[in-house]
């Protein structure tokens, strides 16, 4: 009797016991930066021995799921995110300090905005961007992350380390599309193509946008495709919520495009890990907090997960499996490049620039992904080309990859606007124009004009870039400038005795040639010819009358320079190093205030050398403090001119802060000097910092101390101290600076506000 009842009792007990799952699928929602939450969830699951047999996702969820399927551990994902590269990927900006060649940036002027016009196409003279953010950075990042894993799986997502799919939205058919085959990087890129933000992906006559538009949490598709025993749902958003006025512009646009999504998992065979993460879609500054939130929420439901799952998969077992898959991924080495969309001449220019060699199959240069990416980004950083999403294919016979991309040239005519708004008389308006042609040789013609009440200058010229065995450029320009420091206020707060009232003008032609030494350094030879005019108080002391010196010159300079600064003005990181030698010869002509013509004609010549170095760097283990230093040394055999005022005006000057270039200070000019400074910087908020600067200069003795100075003593040691608040806006810096010259008294103190770029003309005699 007992033998008959016991099986019935056991079956009843088993039926009453909770079901234990065998196969586990993890599905991840979209949400932009909120989706970093999934990394913490995966970290907790793997750490606790929960098996992960299938992964799927939409948008950011598709990126995290694909990374896991491609063999990246949660710890590796965390390292990638915290390194800051993800923020760089979605910025749409190619960092010129990392990728652009410095020799191509020489002579580039900062502007607030620029517009391009297609003069050859009357129907589309002015082109409007098709997306808010250029996707070139993230396109290449996805290739780096996924192309080798896709090659190892034969473009079959079931053969990845963990089977995977993602969802995109076909806007032509107005329906979701499940991506299970093809290039993994293309599938992920389609799934995350947020409308208005990134360009869509074209595939098989479909126009694919972000999968979140039609299915932001594809758990039903996961159930249909893989039939897991247990579904773990990781949800980083609040669900089907309408846009709110507090949402960012991008969040509002995406929420308006989204359809209703089913976030309700079947309770009997699912575990839900969810939080409405409170960051904007592109806010990657809170990455650590978001990932930690996912980890904490997953650990909170871990008892339930452990109860439901019989199998345990030790982290060491997962690591072995991961290492075996990664070992099967062929390295990203390319030997075939197919560029489309360009005419023959621009195509030849681009192939030379990217250094891919000849176009014949089997005769192109082999290179790894890092070098190919850097070369392409170096070309794109100039802003003259755009690139659609590139296609990468693996050739099993050669063991190498093919790179296919479609490029377009931007309109050739460019209009640039900018300038400086100041609390002083140093206000400027800037307008620039350029026209370029790209062929076997790149040519650019341009004009720049800076207009201000006291300081005006302009340049008209061009540049040609040649690509032979080594790149080479030649530039040529006509330059003029006029500065009138005889009138106007420059922010003085106290009595001033360190300045003189002068007026100068430059008119010269310039011819230069240069070539790169490294990506961020170059060697340049330059020759200038023209004349400089100096107007200064008459040495007879006759009221407002001025003497006039004209120096007609020929000058040559050889310079080697390296620049990695992150900003043209008020940098926070990087270095600017220059070493140069000059030779100048010319005729010094003097016309006193009472004379009607120049009556002295004396030849002057000199040689000199200069070394300057500005460097800014973060302090270890201190995220809010950085440090900078400045070194400047000059040695010349500068001769005396007909007057002492003209002698001083023609000498090199030490001007480590912008304000020092807005006024004329004889004390900071000399034929020989050594100077330096330190610049501690305190971060207040992103792009907002407080900088202090302390500078000292030791110079050669002046042969004469002008009577205009209150104290007729030639001090050889001089100082500058400055404290400034700086905020870098997307179009230019905003600064408020308190500047003090010399420390012997409370004179010579200035307060200046500037928005934009106070821009100064190059000197015809260089320094």
Radius of gyration, whole Å: 33 Å
Q: What percentage of the residues does DSSP assign to strands (E)?
A: 35-45%
Silhouette: elongated
Low-confidence stretches: 1-19
Overall average residue pLDDT: 87
Kindly name the structural category. alpha+beta
- Summarize the biggest pleated sheet: 18 strands, antiparallel
Number of helices: 15
Q: Care to count the β-strands? A: 31
What is the helix fraction of residues, given as a range? 10-25%
Q: Quote the distance from N terminus to C terminus.
A: 111 Å
Describe it for me?
With 767 residues, the protein is α+β, with helices and mostly antiparallel strands. 20% of the residues lie in helices and 38% in strands. It has an 18-stranded antiparallel beta sheet that branches. Residues 1-19 have low confidence and may be disordered.
Chart the SSEs and their pairings.
Blueprint: H1 2-16, E1 24-28, H2 37-47, E2 54-58, H3 60-69, H4 74-82, H5 85-89, E3 113-117, H6 136-152, E4 164-170, E5 175-179, H7 184-191, E6 201-203, E7 206-210, H8 219-226, E8 230-235, H9 249-257, E9 270-274, H10 287-300, H11 302-308, H12 315-327, E10 333-340, H13 344-354, E11 367-368, H14 369-380, E12 385-387, E13 391-395, E14 400-409, E15 413-422, E16 428-438, E17 441-451, E18 455-467, E19 471-484, E20 502-518, E21 521-537, E22 546-563, E23 574-591, E24 600-619, E25 622-636, H15 644-649, E26 672-678, E27 681-685, E28 688-699, E29 717-729, E30 732-741, E31 749-756
Parallel strand pairs: 1-2, 1-8, 2-4, 8-9, 10-14
Antiparallel strand pairs: 3-15, 4-5, 4-7, 6-7, 10-11, 12-14, 13-14, 15-16, 15-31, 16-17, 17-18, 18-19, 19-20, 20-21, 21-22, 22-23, 23-24, 24-25, 25-26, 25-27, 26-28, 27-28, 28-29, 29-30, 30-31
Helix pairs in contact: 2-4, 2-10, 3-7, 6-7
């Amino acid at each position: 009797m007992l033998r008959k009842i016991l099986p019935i009792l056991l079956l009843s007990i088993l039926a009453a016991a909770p079901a234990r799952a065998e196969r586990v699928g993890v599905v991840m929602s979209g949400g932009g930066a909120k989706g970093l939450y999934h990394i913490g969830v995966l970290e907790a699951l793997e750490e606790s021995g929960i098996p992960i047999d299938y992964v799927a996702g939409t948008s950011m969820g598709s990126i995290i799921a694909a990374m896991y399927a491609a063999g990246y551990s949660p710890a590796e994902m965390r390292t990638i995110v915290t390194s800051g590269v993800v923020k760089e990927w979605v910025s749409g900006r190619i960092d010129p300090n990392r990728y652009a060649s410095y020799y191509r940036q020489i002579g580039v002027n900062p502007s607030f905005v620029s517009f391009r016009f297609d003069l050859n196409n009357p129907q589309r003279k002015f082109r409007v961007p098709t997306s808010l953010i250029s996707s070139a950075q993230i396109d290449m990042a996805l290739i780096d992350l996924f192309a080798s894993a896709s090659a190892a799986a034969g473009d079959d997502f079931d053969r990845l380390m963990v089977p995977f799919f993602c969802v995109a939205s076909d806007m032509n058919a107005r329906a979701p599309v499940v991506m299970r085959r093809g290039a993994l990087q293309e599938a992920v890129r389609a799934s995350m193509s947020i409308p208005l933000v990134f360009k869509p992906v074209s595939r098989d006559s479909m126009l694919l946008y972000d999968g979140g538009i039609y299915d932001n949490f594809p758990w039903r598709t996961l159930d249909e495709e893989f039939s897991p025993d247990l579904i773990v749902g990781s949800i980083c958003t609040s669900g089907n919520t309408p846009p709110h006025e507090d949402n960012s512009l991008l969040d509002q646009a995406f929420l308006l495009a989204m359809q209703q999504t089913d976030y309700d998992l079947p309770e009997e065979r699912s575990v839900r890990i969810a939080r409405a993460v409170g960051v904007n879609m592109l806010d990657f500054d809170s990455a650590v907090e978001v990932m930690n939130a996912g980890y904490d929420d997953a650990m909170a439901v871990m008892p339930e997960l452990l109860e439901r799952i019989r199998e345990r998969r030790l982290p060491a077992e997962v690591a072995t499996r991961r290492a075996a898959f990664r070992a099967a991924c062929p390295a990203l080495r390319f030997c075939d490049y197919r560029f489309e969309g360009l005419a023959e001449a621009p195509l030849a220019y681009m192939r030379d620039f990217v250094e891919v060699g000849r176009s014949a199959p089997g005769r192109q240069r082999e290179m790894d992904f890092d070098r190919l990416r850097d070369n392409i980004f170096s070309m794109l950083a100039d802003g003259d080309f755009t690139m659609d999403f590139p296609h990468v294919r693996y050739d099993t016979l050669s063991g190498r990859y093919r790179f296919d991309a479609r490029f377009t040239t931007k309109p050739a005519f460019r209009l640039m606007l900018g300038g400086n708004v100041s609390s002083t008389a140093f206000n400027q308006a800037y307008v620039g124009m350029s026209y370029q042609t790209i062929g076997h040789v790149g040519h650019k013609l341009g004009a720049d004009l800076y207009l201000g009440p006291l300081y005006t200058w302009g340049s008209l010229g061009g540049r040609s870039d040649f690509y032979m065995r080594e790149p080479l450029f030649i530039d040529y320009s006509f330059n003029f400038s006029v500065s009138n420091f005889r009138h106007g206020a420059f922010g003085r707060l106290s009595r001033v005795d360190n300045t003189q009232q002068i007026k100068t003008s430059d008119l010269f032609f310039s011819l230069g040639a240069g070539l790169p030494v490294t990506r961020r350094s170059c060697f340049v030879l330059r020759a200038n010819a023209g004349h400089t005019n100096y107007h200064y108080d008459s040495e007879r002391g006759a009221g407002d009358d001025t003497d006039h010196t004209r120096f007609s010159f020929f000058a040559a300079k050889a310079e080697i320079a390296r620049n990695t600064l992150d900003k043209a003005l008020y940098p926070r990181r990087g270095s600017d190093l220059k070493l140069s030698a000059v030779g100048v010869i010319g005729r010094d002509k003097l016309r006193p205030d009472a004379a009607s013509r120049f009556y002295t004609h004396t030849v002057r010549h000199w040689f000199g050398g200069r070394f300057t170095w500005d460097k800014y760097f973060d302090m270890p283990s201190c995220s809010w403090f950085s440090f900078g230093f400045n070194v400047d040394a000059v040695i010349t055999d500068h001769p005396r001119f007909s007057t002492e005022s003209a002698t001083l005006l023609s000498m090199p000057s030490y001007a480590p802060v912008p304000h020092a270039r807005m006024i004329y200070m004889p004390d900071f000019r000399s034929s020989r000097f050594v100077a330096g400074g330190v610049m501690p910087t305190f971060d207040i908020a992103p792009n907002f910092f407080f900088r202090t600067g302390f500078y000292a200069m030791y110079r050669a003795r002046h042969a004469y101390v002008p009577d205009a100075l209150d104290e007729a003593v030639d001090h050889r040691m001089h100082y500058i101290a400055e404290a400034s608040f700086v905020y870098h806006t997307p179009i230019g810096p905003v600064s408020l600076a308190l500047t003090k010259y010399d420390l012997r008294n409370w004179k010579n103190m200035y307060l200046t506000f500037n928005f934009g770029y106070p821009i100064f003309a190059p000197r015809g005699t260089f320094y």
